[in-house]
Amino acid sequence: MAPERRAIHGWIALDKPVGMGSTQALAKVRRAAGALKAGHGGTLDPLASGLLPIALGEATKTVAWAMAGAKRYRMTVRWGEATATDDAEGEVIATSDVRPDEASIRAMLPRFTGEIMQVPSRYSAIKVEGRRAYDRARAGEIVELPPRPVRIDGFDLVAIEDERHAVFEVACGKGAYMRSLGRDLAAALGTVGHLTALRRLSVGRFSVDRAISVENLAELGHIAGLSEHLLPVETALDDIPALALTVAEALRLRHGQSVRPLCPSDRTRIDRLAEGSILSVSAAGILVAIAAIDAGALRPVRVLNLV
């Protein structure tokens, strides 16, 4: 019997298995926790495994900041075969006899580090005139996606399994596509390639090392299991500045009003930050809101109800 729905707030770091969609994984966590509300912080394709942060209750209001966090992946590229989807799911559309050696691979990686331009896979979730690119591609439409800038913070060769397969770890910013990265690296090395495995290792402060497996989800329905794996709502906000207000000031934020703190040191701190900067705001040790700096005051962007 499914547990009774309840107001539960926080994050569950799920280790999603291959073959399960992100929406299906979200439903499993929500059902196991008995949560009234749930959302996920960044989609993972069914063929990918690894970290999928699941937001419960008021944590759903912080999903955008979780998705904006830096990410780490481990991916395996197969040389010599290009596929329509840039991964193992698609049909082979081109082949090559070229197999890059370790020295060539390592010499090429700096070209794909830093700010680079990347053309997303036409089987990506990017919307084209209101429809997902992958829906248009699967319907047989010709999908042309323009290149866009992405940030690759680290691109390391960690293993060569055989002449056809190499394993990499990638640290990147929001919006970088690993399938495109593998495809473009292969092209730069004078061959073709596609991803045969992809695992997400971290998103912001969330790490797969602290993630719970789907097999253990049933334990989430019990208080002991839940408290062991439930992470604070603030976990998604660790990378943005934090500010503590008085209870009276926090009440104004909760009512949608802008606040200029009475404490001189807080006002000085706000004045030193750029217009539009985002802060997490708390009072009496409880997260109250995510606010933006607007003309020297704090304007609530998302108000949280954790009391």
Topology, pairings included?
Elements: E1 10-16, H1 22-33, E2 38-40, E3 49-56, H2 63-67, E4 71-79, E5 81-83, E6 92-95, H3 102-108, E7 114-118, E8 127-128, E9 131-132, H4 133-138, E10 148-162, E11 165-172, H5 178-188, E12 193-203, E13 206-207, E14 212-213, H6 223-229, E15 230-231, E16 242-244, H7 247-254, H8 264-272, E17 278-283, E18 286-294, E19 297-303
Parallel strand pairs: 1-14, 3-12, 16-17
Antiparallel strand pairs: 1-3, 1-15, 2-3, 4-11, 4-12, 5-6, 7-10, 8-9, 10-11, 12-13, 17-18, 18-19
Q: Strand pairing plus helix content: what structural class?
A: alpha+beta
In quaternary terms, these chains amount to: single chain
| Binned strand content | 35-45%
Order of helices and strands: EHEEHEEEHEEEHEEHEEEHEEHHEEE
The first-to-last residue Cα distance is 29 Å
Explain what the structure shows.
This protein has 307 residues and is of the alpha+beta class. It has three domains: 10-69 and 205-233, 2-Layer Sandwich (Pseudouridine synthase); 80-163 and 176-195, 2-Layer Sandwich (Pseudouridine synthase), CATH 3.30.2350; 242-303, PUA domain (Archaeosine Trna-guanine Transglycosylase, Chain: A, domain 4). The protein is built from eight helices and 19 strands. The strands form four sheets. Strands 1, 2, 3, 4, 7, 10, 11, 12, 13, 14 and 15 form an eleven-stranded mixed sheet that branches. A four-stranded mixed sheet has the order 16-17-18-19. The protein has a two-stranded antiparallel ribbon with strand order 5-6. The longest helix has 12 residues, at 22-33.
